Amino acid sequence: MTNTEIVAAIHTVLTEQMAHAHVDGFGLKARLNEDLYLDSVLILQIFLNLELEYGLSVPEEAIAKQDIETVADLAALYAPKLTAIATPAFALTGGTADEGVHGEAYYDIKVHCFVSCVCDGLKRQGLDQRPFYFGVWDAKFSVSDRFQLLYHTQETSQEFFRQWFQRLYGVTVREWYDPDKTKIENLAVLLDLVRSRAQTGSVMVMLDMFQLPERENKFNQNPFPHYLMLQETADPETWFVHDPDYRWEGEIAREKVIHAIMQPTVGGGYVFDHAQANAPAAEDLKAYFEACFLEDNNPLVDAVREIVSAHIEATDGIALSDLAAAVRELPVITIRKYAYEHGFAFFWRALKLPAGEFETWCEEIEALVQSLKTLHYACMKLSQSGDRTFAPSVFERLAEADRLEVNLKVKLAEIFALWCERNIPEPVEVRILKRVAR
């Protein structure tokens, strides 16, 4: 197919197969996310329909990376004599090539909105927030009774992170939102907290990001529960919104923010003062790592395997065609795996291990993330085609993701043990002398 024919095929897929509502601005220069409102899952859907309807396919590396901005970029993936896209080294540490993980500059991972919000204050106090990400790579999610993967439900709690943050850094994180009160009553509490916020204080609230269309939404979830922080501005009709997880801040009309907060699908909020923060004790960091670390299993891979099996076996009447919807939120949970980089970086710096070897492990983290992305695509392909001969490919990708994550955990356990040897004093046996009776 010529480039013109490929572009026409993309347009047909969007309008006919996907019935996408935002194609008015379609053209070679149209941006997939900002102009056409295509999130990562919808882009996978385009890949899948082009393969199933037109026989067009691209290397798995392209599907996993999705390093494309415009319609022209997407069409170029299908150009004749296409070669596999090289996956670059995953150097999240930032800084110069010489300093690497041991330099002061590093890429700040944002993969969990609650954790990102509380850690934002640590950076302002000059503290290293990376150890707090130990709890993110296997952070809890849910599987519904209909075998659907859910990153957030009404029962989702941040209590584990809240209590450990207080223990590690000495910051009191108070939950101001009361689920037993009405939305109006909770809003009144929020308005007062924003009004009286101290200079070093933070007011965190959960809202539905889907209701803020002016904000970039890579996942296009509806609803999209998300924590961010609020401040007043000189204009009483405008709030300053600080969203550490998406690395965005700016002013938004107060009423728009309140509308997103008042949605019935969201509810939550916390207040804290980062001026209280102090560096954690080594013993507390050890206890936190041990509380987070699941050495013997990988919950996400296990859950997806259970979900896929249930849909293949038609458990409780579930159809194979429902599988794509059941794993739609997999990308939201997949990005949490980038938290491994913070875990490796913390121990690597503390132990002064070779920077080059650290970058090798970063590439393994990237490989895990990309394997989960290709797994997602394989699930969608199995679901939409209904062809059960694609099932072995899904299970092969599950096994590969499992293998990669096990390797990461084995290495983490090794360097954690070494860190403990150097930082945790050996327990001293105290002999108790008893008074001799006379």
Structural overview:
- A six-stranded antiparallel sheet has the order 3-8-4-5-6-7, sandwiched between helices.
- The protein contains 15 helices and eight strands.
- It folds into three domains: 3-76, Non-ribosomal Peptide Synthetase Peptidyl Carrier Protein, Chain A, CATH 1.10.1200.10; 113-276, Cathepsin B, Chain A (Alpha-Beta Complex); 292-423.
- 45% of the residues lie in helices and 9% in strands.
- The chain has 438 residues and is α+β, with helices and mostly antiparallel strands.
- Helix 10 (299-312) runs antiparallel to helix 15 (391-423).
- The protein is globular and about 65 Å long.
- It starts with a helix and ends in a 15-residue tail after the last helix.
Q: How is the topology of this model organized?
A:
Blueprint: H1 3-17, H2 40-54, H3 60-65, H4 71-76, H5 113-124, E1 142-143, E2 149-150, H6 159-169, E3 174-175, H7 183-195, E4 201-208, E5 225-232, E6 238-243, E7 248-253, H8 254-261, E8 269-273, H9 282-292, H10 299-312, H11 323-326, H12 330-334, H13 339-351, H14 355-385, H15 391-423
Q: Give the structural class.
A: alpha+beta
Task: Report mean pLDDT, rounded to a whole number.
Answer: 87
Here the CATH topology of the largest domain equals Cathepsin B, Chain A
Percent in helix? 40-55%
The appropriate CATH architecture of the largest domain is Alpha-Beta Complex
Overall form: globular
What does the main sheet amount to?
6 strands, antiparallel
